[in-house]
Description:
By secondary structure, the chain is an alpha/beta fold. It has helices spanning 41-49, 117-122, 124-137, 154-165, 179-184, 198-201, 215-221, 240-248, 262-273, 290-297, and strands at 2-5, 16-19, 29-39, 63-71, 83-87, 100-104, 108-110, 145-148, 169-174, 189-192, 205-210, 224-232, 252-255, 281-286, 305-309. Strands 3, 4, 5, 6, 7, 14 and 15 form a seven-stranded mixed β-sheet that branches. It starts with a strand and ends with a strand.
Amino acid sequence: MRAITQDVLGGPDVLRLAEVARPEPGPTEVLVRVRAAGVNPTDWKHRANGGLIGVPPFTLGWDVSGVVEAIGPGTTLYRPGDEVFGMLRYPQAHGAYAEYVSAPARTFARKPSEIDHIQAGALPLAALTAWQALVDTAGVRGGQRVLVHAAAGGVGHLAVQIAKARGAHVIGTASAAKHDFLRTLGADELIDYRTTDFAEVVRDVDMVLDTMGGEYGSRSLRTLREGGTIVSLVLSELDPDLAEEASARGIRSAAMLVEPDHAAMKSIAALAAAGRLRAKIAAVLPLEEATKAHELGETGRTTGKIVLTP
């Protein structure tokens, strides 16, 4: 099969198209023919420094939408021909930039017929991240106030929609040029981070989703009510100074990495099927243009998700 691999760490030009062995499904696994693979910031970070997956050679990518090609022994959820989407186990089980992937069946949920593979391929990692932060970690519910940083980003724009689906009042930080887009997603209040210090104008929120890190964390504590929650997506371990300051203010703090989650994927699928969750597609490129996809993503100027199509 064709796959994008790299032999060294570095810039986008280290990515290359290669012929590699097609995987075979083991017990309780499915082999999926990839129709779309989402591209995320974590991809180019790992390409450049190895991050949590170590040194090359490796094939990047965690987002998959495709068609079940074969099933391993003991698999009961799916049959060949079923359309599925999901996130390969993060960070260990990368490999979505390929024509086929093999993974545990419960990595995936059935792709809703209401969305195509490109849309489905853009959702898993970012939507699971938002879901696990908002719902599982912070327990966001109707009537609460949620502050989402980088609200027009890959995770941010999905978090806005998930929070609204939970009945929350959503405040987002983004450049002014992206405010109209975020209003279409249901954002209630928007702050241009280039002209306004959010920490001076936002108060008494129940939850902050920090996708930025750095001084955003400590500034965000000033916006939270006592008993509120801040969830950081930047580090797997929370900065000790931030955790101490949060505790002194009576605020819960947590840092998280996204996990495969069959139940959450089914919830995400239901929202997508109902038209309540949709990824903004910034670009769709063929698999062999993975280098271009990374170059585009690293500009930091895209809104939404980039998708590769094997």
